[in-house]
Amino acid sequence: MAQRLKSLLSDNQELRPLLTKAQALSALQRHFVGVAPPHLAQSVQVLSLQLGTLCIAATNATIAAKLRQLAPELVILLQNKGCEVNGIRIKVQVFVSSVQAKPVTRKLSKTAQNALSDFSHELGESPLKLALKKMIEAKS
């Protein structure tokens, strides 16, 4: 899929600059990850490079503050890798994670099971009574 997209972009005269820009940003991201401390690099996304200023997004203000302290050192390290960077601008931008949290299965205590069972016996036939019975059976 990625190869087909790359082929499509490189074959189209109007879209070729987009491919070039994406490849340059991807290379900058790899270089940045290579020079930044690992615990910070995983929370940073390269956004752009304009007039020598590398713009990056950090996931929170704490990481952004630490990166601002390290920025002069990171610029030198990036320059040593051949990047045309003479400054770093840091933005705070929350990333949406594509990883979904696993639902936690919870068990009812015996007291809770007994209380729900007693309550369901007091109810007349209803969707609530049926739902309570299913919940008690599932949590047993």
Describe this entry's structure for a reader.
The protein contains 6 helices and 3 strands; from the N terminus they run αααββαβαα. α4 links the parallel β2 and β3 (87-92). With 140 residues, the chain is an alpha+beta fold. α5 (110-122) runs antiparallel to α6. The two termini are 46 Å apart. The protein has helices spanning 2-11, 16-35, 38-41, 61-80, 110-122, 127-139, and strands spanning 44-50, 53-58, 87-92. The protein has 2 domains: 2-92, GMP Synthetase, Chain A, domain 3 (2-Layer Sandwich), CATH 3.30.300; 110-139, no CATH class. The chain has a 3-stranded mixed sheet, covered by helices on one side.
Largest sheet: 3 strands, mixed
- Poorly predicted sequence stretches spanning 5 or more consecutive residues: none
Would you identify the CATH architecture of the largest domain?
A: 2-Layer Sandwich
Question: Strands of the largest sheet, in order across it?
Answer: 1-2-3
Name the beta content range: 5-15%
Total strands: the figure is 3
Tell me roughly what share of residues is in helical segments.
55-70%
CATH level 3 topology of the largest domain: GMP Synthetase, Chain A, domain 3
Structural class: alpha+beta
CATH class of the largest domain: Alpha Beta
Mean model confidence by pLDDT: 85
The termini sit apart by: 46 Å
Rg on CA atoms, Å: 27 Å
Please, how many helices? 6
What is the global morphology?
A: elongated
